[in-house]
Amino acid sequence: MGLFKFNEKDYFVHEFSDRKRRCVKLSEFKRFNPDVLGLGEINVKAERKEVVCAIFDLSGFTDFCKQIDPRLAIPAFLSGYLNWFFDTLRDCFVDKRTDSDGGGVALYSDPPFFCKFMGDGLLLLWDAENLNAIPMHNIIGICATICSKYKKEFIKTTSKTMAYLPARLRCGIARGDVYGVGNGSDFVGPCINLASRLQKLGPLSFVVSKRGFDFNEHLDESMTKLFTLQSAVVRGIGNQELIYILTEELPLLNREDRKIIRRLMK
Length: 266
Known about the structure:
The chain is an alpha+beta fold and 266 residues long.
């Protein structure tokens, strides 16, 4: 998807004004069109879908790619990181208190129905229309655990074999509407834009939009204590957006950060 290349058989030699030129067949040249994006029928009416969106971003991946011979380091890192990410994500969904003799597992919530790799980030979408409040809020705890485990487990292990690793895994989460593109081959919408903005908010590594979430009502007390409610200026979204951030990251906010993030309650 998104790859395009001519084959040798697509070329022929033609003479122009006593000069021979290598040309590509017009029929093959016309293959370079929106179809290379792999989106299917783009003109199909977009269907609205309510989702929980999480965008994970590797902070420092650009600098990682600047090292000597990144062609060797990038595949090795991404292979290890993506395998670790999905293995850990899958493990976090499993309720360890349950035991199935039928070869199955009980889950805290369904896995995302859509996953997309975005260079140095991952976009995950969950179907919020068919998700109860508790499983929906469990997604928050699972995503927070992933970010924590990246530093405590993945970095600790991988640093023994690789250098200049991206220092943090950041995550922004929002609930809202998206619209399918090309029969659901991809998705766009304000919910994705908001999650993208949140994962870049100041020095924070984990930010959740309050819209559609109530931590006090649907998270257990041990999880609720980990978060603090804030008001923030989110570029392109609003000047008084309510967000949940990790309480332990409050000391990271300097005077400049406080201009966009203000504490509301303990």
